[in-house]
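Feature request, filed as a ticket because there's no other form

It would be nice if the structure record came with a short human-readable summary line next to the tokens. Right now we just get the raw output. Example of a typical job, pasted below so the devs can see what we mean:
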Amino acid sequence: MKIVMAIIKPFKLEEVRDALTSIGVHGLTVTEVKGYGRQKGHTEIYRGAEYAVNFLPKLKIEVAVATDQVKPVIDAITGAAKTGQIGDGKIFVFSIDQAVRIRTGEQNADAL
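Raw output as currently delivered:
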């Protein structure tokens, strides 16, 4: 079992969700986050004053899947989230040691 974590641009959420649903992934967690990578922020003007925006708004998506689903999930996220511009995001994959569905007590792959 793996967790696929993706950091994406906020306006790409619906496209990513639709892409994941189309390959059979029906559960995901979305968190609003801020950060920067190579973009390094930018400056904006508000009421005539210029100020630096060092941390850009992003969304973190986490999906728990069986190990054999990792490649299709990565492909779906990449295809849906890509704009070709800097700041499209990153995908990370983590191993899951154990999973438990609280309501039923099902464990591991059955809990996904």
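Something like this underneath would help us a lot:
Residues 70-81 form the longest helix (12 residues).
The chain has a mean pLDDT of 90.
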